[in-house]
Design goal:
This protein is of the alpha/beta class. 39% of the residues lie in helices and 8% in strands. The chain has 16 helices and nine strands. The chain starts with a helix and ends with a strand.
Amino acid sequence: MSVFRTIRSQMKRKLCTTSILGAILLIASCILYSKITSSRYQRLVRYANEKPESQVTVHDQPQNNLAVVKALQTENQKVIPTQNKVKDKKEAEIKPTEPPVLLGEAYATDTTYMNSKCPERIREVALNIEWLKRIFIHTIPVLQWNDHVTMEEYQRLQIYNLCYGYAIIDFAELKRTLDVLNATANRFMFDDWEVRKSGQKPCIHCAVVGNGGILKDSKKGKEIDDHDYIFRVNGAITQGFENDVGNRTSFYFFSTNTMKNSLWGHKHAGFTGLPQSQETRYVFIPENLRDYLMIRAAATNTTVEFGKDKSSSPPDYFGKQPGPEKFKLLHPDFLRYMRNRFLKAGHWKSRIYRPSTGAIMLLTALHTCDKVSAYGFITPEYGNYSAYYYDRKYTKLIFYGNHHLKMEMNLWQRLHEAGAIKLYMKT
């Protein structure tokens, strides 16, 4: 028995020693990680607050302070009452967060969309709505093109990842892509407006069409097609649904990832190819290096040289030899601005979070069109409708973690009530 006690005592001492060493190593690792994280954070904050000498003026709004951000967050916390009871109360809450330090509030300046002579344009409405006036930047750049290829701009935006900056691409590849986007059509959303406008018509009316089930049996097709421009997104199926959603497409919004997911996920419903017509333009959301490679290949009718979409022939998603005039590329400043100011969700720190593709499309219209009508977007009664208007049977709307659709729903309601957009609702 004494032998067993001796062995057990030795084992306890070894386990104790091992535990102490493990604890010491764990504490040391935490201290080292804390120092590295703190250093990296300070570096990012320092870079975010630096104003580079750039050909593009950096625009710092004087209203960008903690009080404004908190006021906006408080307003966004209001949850629109619905007819559908939310089982999980936390799901419907939008919690306030800290100001967007790591997604800086310095933006370049572009006055392209300030020259409209429309007396009832959205920008005039924004000036009269206090909460919207505080967050709306009239000179935010919407698109990027060859003029943006400067080392100063690249260094300013290199600290931001995903679609919010240039961390996803090196300068050489960025220059190769943006050098292709050098036509007037790449700089302005409505590049054919002077040709298509009738007489002295001053206002650009846009219909922004989501794919929500609320459009099923809506008979809004003609009303949608009567707008000057029609925006569509993802599985934008029109054939067979013209009476409800129309058939024209002026702009199709996507990233390479959402395009391919839509072609795969909605093929069963009839989405077998992107909209193609003489008026159709393709608006890229640059959330990854693959988007810069794809738009360059499509615009120059060449292959995707490397990466996940590497090909042996030019991409044919956009028709044969579409030409660079068919393409537009959203600016990282614009995408960061809409996330910071319009849709800064409670889980904004998540690496995967970004506004939905539909939200990006609608907010682009809000900043470029004179008047906006929105169809097929989520409303408080979303539970009464199938997820998509082309569903053959009722399908419940799924809320994915990379978007915050209920915050988007609240924003659309507020914009509608303010008169900034006209949102289609059945009730």
